[in-house]
Amino acid sequence: xxxxxxxxxxxxxxxxxxxxxxxxxxxxxxxxxxxxxxxxxxxxxxxxxxxxxxxxxxxxxxxxxxxxxxxxxxxxxxxxxxxxxxxxxxxxxxxxxxxxxxxxxxxxxxxxxxxxxxxxxxxxxxxxxxxxxxxxxxxxxxxxxxxxxxxxxxxxxxxxxxxxxxxxxxxxxxxxxxxxxxxxxxxxxxxxxxxxxxxxxxxxxxxxxxxxxxxxxxxxxxxxxxxxxxxxxxxxxxxxxxxxxxxxxxxxxxxxxxxxxxxxxxxxxxxxxxxxxxxxxxxxxxxxxxxxxxxxxxxxxxxxxxxxxxxxxxxxxxxxxxxxxxxxxxxxxxxxxxxxxxxxxxxxxxxxx
Length: 353
Description:
The protein is an alpha/beta fold. Helices cover 38% and strands 17% of the residues.
């Protein structure tokens, strides 16, 4: 019953096979290899748009370098208060941008609404020297509560920030799960909806360590090669990242892995609907299930061997607060999650309640 994260699993068999294959012989270093070039081409094909692509090994590096390329040190990025860049990256975006500020906004399900963004912009008038200047809006796809932004929602957010000249960044650590959930073309929730730069996640979806900064407006990419090198993220053996993406994109393997993870989360949610004294905190739209339950149920699950995390209630609907003795638990399904694991967890829930 290992549902703590989609990071706890290894790589898919196809990715591991690709790594072994690219390990043979020699190759040019520092991203000048054929695997890296092929991966860059595949990104442009995937999005049906010419992209500048920078391969990395961690999502923190991808987010921090992407945001640093879009802001000056006196700038600010608006984001949800529960976002990964705000809470889980140890100040990396601020550090790599030279001191730019992260401003967290509220939103149910960790989703931002355009009126919330517009209201914040109104509190930060342009040209006021005593204030940081908002320069980027960053959204997570899927959100930290497992919800997905639809194309029209992204386009509306993009329209809300354009009068002030902000750029739109998307943290796509679970981008594959969002695409699988929506059944849309990857372009529909990125550049066609107004996204300028995407942090594309592979590690949570069957890769060993493979992330990418994908820049749709190539004029915004000019600084990233130097920022990546200066930060220590230009790998000498970059072919090992490129090979992982090439394996993921072949035969839409990346999408199949995400579809499986989403299906396992849906299976868990459907089963929980029949368990008394528990309910979902938010609808299950991707591969994460958030369960509102009595604390004693959480403790019984841990005792039974469930590996999951307690979660914050900050993004719950304010009209539906938690009562005393009740907690939120997060259960994450992954590409390697099996039906038997889901059924074992459901049985543990039934016994605990």
